[in-house]
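Table S7 (text form). Paired inputs.
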Amino acid sequence: MTATTTATLPTAGTWVVDASHSSIEAVAKHLVVSKVRGRFSTFEGTIVIADQLENSTVDVTIQAASIDTNDAKRDEHLRSEDFLDVETHPTLTFRSDSVKDAGDGEYVVPGELTIRGVTRPVELEVTYLGLIKDPWGNDKAGFSATTTLDREEFGITWNAALETGGVLVGKNLKIEIDLQLAQAQA
């Protein structure tokens, strides 16, 4: 049986993030000339698609300690007070109560991101990837989203100057999100 996608938006209702088929990553400049990617492995979320799309809501919670950059020493530093301070602030959250249709399957989702207890407005640029039935007859929807944020606005200011100029860790983080959603069971 071959599944097909359509441009049809998911039906109104509650959709939950399928974390095992989704990813949330942060990308930072390192040593001015390269990038380091960190992936959060533990998160959950709910998207309520409203009858009027602009009234839809998003609620995502990420476990800060789940950051993984494929380097245990760096991960421990990222969990420390210098960066995420997971002992004091165990979660990162994103909440939105509106969606703006930008046309051609593109959307803007304005919301509030909280990191280290600091909440700032951010806008996610979202691409709708389609709706499909899995082999068991369940509806699944896919979305991709990105945003760029200034980590210093969230109180993450640690850095080290390089002898040749520049800093060890870039100020901006690019956030890349790929979500597969499943319609919540009644």
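Next pair, protein 2 of 2.
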Amino acid sequence: MSPFEQIMKRLLTIVAAVLLLFNGIGALYGGWSLMTYPDGSNLQLPLAWLEHTPFSDFLIPGIVLFIANGLCSIFVFSALLFSYNKTALLVMAQGIILMGWIVVQVLLVQKYHPLQLLLGIVGFLLFVTGWAMRRINQNKEEGK
């Protein structure tokens, strides 16, 4: 592996770690808050936001948020720390999960908040970072 690829791999690992922690910690907090206060009061979310969804409160969305974006992001972060050989794919998958969460949220809630754009960008950056990590790993395996 060339020195440039080594630097890029380290930089991509740092970027992925920061994005995963940002998403994971925020989702754990948000999901836990929604599970603990399903009326949304802890996060100042009005129940009226759920009028176009199949949910009467935020309990189920909170559980999904906690698991899919919270626990999974922390799991992928752990895989990154332990240099698991499929980490790049896991980072890409977490980006897809986060982007999917945001798209479904916007479609169901029919409300917009700037945080949705920010998290959509985080999801996209996770995907791109994972893709770039995968390319570097492929080049290393091919001996380029």
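The longest helix spans residues 3-36.
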